Amino acid sequence: MDKLLAMQAFVTVVDCGSQTAAADKLGLSRPVISRFLAELEDWTGARLMHRTTRRLTLTAVGAQMLPLCRRMLDLAEDMQAIATHPEDEPEGLLRITASTSFGQAQLTGAITEFVARYPKVRIDMQLLDRTVNLVDERVDLAIRITNELDPNLIARRLTTCRSVVCAAPSYLKTHVEPKTIEDLSLHNCLTHSYHGSSLWHFTRDGEPSSVAVNGNVSTNDSVTTLQAALCGSGVALLPTYLAAPLVRKGELVALLPDYQPMTLSIHAVYASRRHVSAVLRAMLDFLVVRFPEEPAWDSAVVAPQS
Question: Per the database record, which ranges form the HTH lysR-type domain (predicted)?
Fold first, then answer.
């Protein structure tokens, strides 16, 4: 069985809504499409579609297999594109989105370095604190900080996002420094707004724990939370890519060194491997090198988690 052709038949049947329409689109006979589907089900060991005279519907396994088949087909086309145009010079417009805090603290510097290296490239960078629909909003690349990725998108892991509990020296002059996460209930904690409260997650000696925190300032933007912390308003939980330089300068004090806040991953995310442009391919390769697994901004601020 040609697995790629079988996957192509499966994906096309789903997209077209019938085996007959898929056969017409692929230039194959309906029996061949049916055979491909049967062979793919034999290979996976599970039924992928419910077939009736009126409609085709995906099984639970089929719904999980569909995005994986799309990725495999896109990867095959990407490999062909690389072989066909191995020396394309990156040029043209690339639309990128990221959170405001990461964009301001880290991505802008990377982008300026990239366009200096590739002067034919133009970057349209949208800094937004919401999840962007890449297809609907015509965005080529998103930088997302999460441990839960959309399975329908292609993600390339870049680096690690750690956080640090911190406060300004002016705040600690009038408040006793917390020694345990339970002590945070005695402090004014600057929270990220959702449902009016926050739950901060930690590990200590490999054991997970969480604590509910409250405060009189809540924002939807980490840069704003950082500014409130610098003004001495309270204790903040901030990403190290944003807070680390200020901790090193002594403008913020890292707290609770025995507790490690939840770690997230930073990914470069795009909609499809199909016809990946030379500029997007170059940007992905550049970002992987620019943001290594152990980020430079963590140096001397927090210890890597085991």
Answer: 1-59
Task: Tell me the backbone φ, ψ of residue 112, rounded to 5 degrees.
Answer: -65, -35
Q: Which pLDDT band, with edges at 50, 70 and 90, does 206 fall under?
A: confident
d(CA 44, CA 165): 47
- DSSP letters along 12-78, please? HHHHHSSHHHHHHHHT--HHHHHHHHHHHHHHHTS--EEE-SS-EEE-HHHHHHHHHHHHHHHHHHH
Q: Which long-range contacts (CB under 8 A, 24 or more apart) does 148-154 make?
A: 149/267, 149/269, 150/269, 151/67, 152/67, 152/70, 153/269, 153/270, 153/271, 154/71, 154/74, 154/269, 154/270, 154/271, 154/272, 154/273
What's domain 163-261's architecture?
3-Layer(aba) Sandwich (3.40)
Q: What is the pLDDT of residues 148-194, one digit of tens each?
A: 888 888 899 999 999 999 999 999 999 999 999 999 999 999 998 76
- Topology of 92-159+264-295 in CATH? D-Maltodextrin-Binding Protein; domain 2 (3.40.190)
CA separation for the pair 151, 4 (Å, rounded): 20
